[in-house]
Amino acid sequence: MDALLQAVSTLLLCLGSWVKYSIAYIQKSLGFEGGLAWVKWTLAWFGVWGPSNVDPMRREINGSQSEAWRTDQESRTYRNHGNGPMVAVQTSTHIFYVDLERLADCSEYFRALSHSCMKETEEHLVNLAHVPSRAFHSLLQFCFLNRFIVPENQIEEHLRLAEELCSVELQETVLTYLSKNLLELPSLSRNMELHLQQELLQMRSRSTPRLCCLRKENLISRDNQETNTARRLFRLEEEDGTWSSITELPFSADKWCFTTAVLFNYLYLIGGFRHRTKRGYEFKMASFRYNPLTDQWVPTAPLIKHRRHFSAAVCEGHIYAVGGWYLDSLVTPDSTTGVYTAVERYDPWADCWAFVSSLPLTDFQFTLSLSHDSP
User: Fold this and answer.
1) How far apart are CA 345 and CA 141, in angstroms?
2) How many Å apart are CA 95 and CA 109, to the nearest integer?
3) What one-character DSSP code corresponds to residue 357?
4) Which of 14, 85, 120, 370 has its Cα between 20 and 30 A from that of 198?
């Protein structure tokens, strides 16, 4: 009985949509405006006539989604020029009325459904009761309005829905978002299947590599402009061979010393800077991560050892900090300088440093290189 009622409801909705667009055509052709008002009122009473479901979404502020779809049937109705066949889609808590042809363009599942003679197609009713209504609503927003506004805690749910309904465009959109925020959402990215993790890393590296430079160490300069310039990150432009400023360094200090490393297309600044205390100045350890895809700096875990002028290398998805010396000023090391043989390894997913085997050398004049095992 429920299925019959839903099928009748869908049929009435389709009929109402046809009448609505017919009235609009008559008004446009013959100039009738007030004479058909009673017809509009009747259709509105049945939930057919009213503002398009697109309008309230376009009026939302700051890109947030409206929750009107939970209580308003018209907001759960998605038409495409009013021409395609409409189907009712039963999700976990709500029924959506959707233009099947347009939905078929976004989903292989619905494309196969529209070309089949299955019971769902004949009755204009598709049962997806296991699919969360909010996730299906986001899918429709994406397909019909080209909008993807999803809370971070629902990203994984939408990725599963995209895979289940074979929505390649939605899946690509979710993966693109995750690749841009790979380490900002480590629990999502790290827990995905291995092939998806590898795809995320490949997506982050699709852009053209650029050479960047910054001043790793700074002493107070008498030239204020030079000091201000030293607090910026520059990129070499391939088109004309000039350097352009892309962002400011994420700290404010008159003295600093940082070593850089690039991992997963993130730029890491690892080291520290001088700041004022009650007793004068002290050097504070700090690290920062720059995401060129979102133009955002975030602080990360500082080194365990209080070290300066160390070397850094990236290997097997980790950053290694090697050597350096303990020093609370930025002067040349001498015989009294304490040299570090401790080696630290950074895990980007857990955002933490840990000690590994110490160096076999005690001199600070050494270099790092990467090697591969022999076959």
Assistant:
1) 44
2) 18
3) P
4) 370
Q: What is the pLDDT of residue 27?
A: 45
List the structure tokens of 234.
Answer: 């520059």
For the chain, what is the radius of gyration of the CA atoms?
30
Interval 324-373: pLDDT, tens: 876 555 555 555 556 678 899 999 999 999 999 888 866 656 666 666 55
Q: Show the tokens assigned to 353.
A: 């440093």
3-class SS at 132? coil
- Average pLDDT, integer, range 139-153: 83
- 0.90 surpassed by pTM: no
Gap between the Cα atoms of 320 and 338, Å rounded: 20
Beta carbons within 8 Å of 6's beta carbon, 6+ residues apart: 88, 90, 95, 125
325 bridge partner residues: 308, 339
CA distances from 266 to 172, 233, 239, 370 (A): 21, 14, 23, 19
Lowest-confidence segment of 50-54, 122-126, 357-361 by average pLDDT = 50-54
Across 165-279, the runs of DSSP E, i.e. the strands, are: 212-213, 217-218, 232-236, 243-248, 256-263, 266-277
Rounded distance, CA 298 to CA 289, Å? 5
Q: To which residue do tokens 């058909």 refer?
A: 36
